[in-house]
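S.,

Sequence below, as promised.
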Amino acid sequence: MDLSQQSPRRWSDTLAGIMWLPRLIDKVRAFQAGTLGTYAYPSALDQSFMRRFQLTPAYIEPLVREAASDEAIGTAIRARIQLSDEEVQHRCAIFRDKYRLAFAVLDRDDGYVRGLGYPIPRFLQPPLWRWYQRWSAQKASATSI
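The prediction came back faster than expected:
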């Protein structure tokens, strides 16, 4: 996975019924390969997601490195978190609703959605990125399971 050449999977993609997990796997693989490009791992959103499901980088990273497939990763995570499908969907819905604005920005920045004014002009990217980093860090620190 080379995130300097392509975007990670979309935030709404699911694996084992869990949104954000495929994107997290892509970012972990890129992190391990040294090909994150401009992406951050673990980002504030990654950390919020992991807290929501009581996961840690110390658990995720070896799992991604050693698992034979995405499906094996999903199966291992579902076995670890031991939540019903309904509870997983509920936690995913809370995560989606809480970060709706951030996901809209990600969709445009990653090229999944085209909108008026996108891509953002280069001179506006640094201040908007700094704002987004501060905003997402505040949101992540306020997130509870």
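The chain is about 60% helix and 5% strand.

Coffee later?
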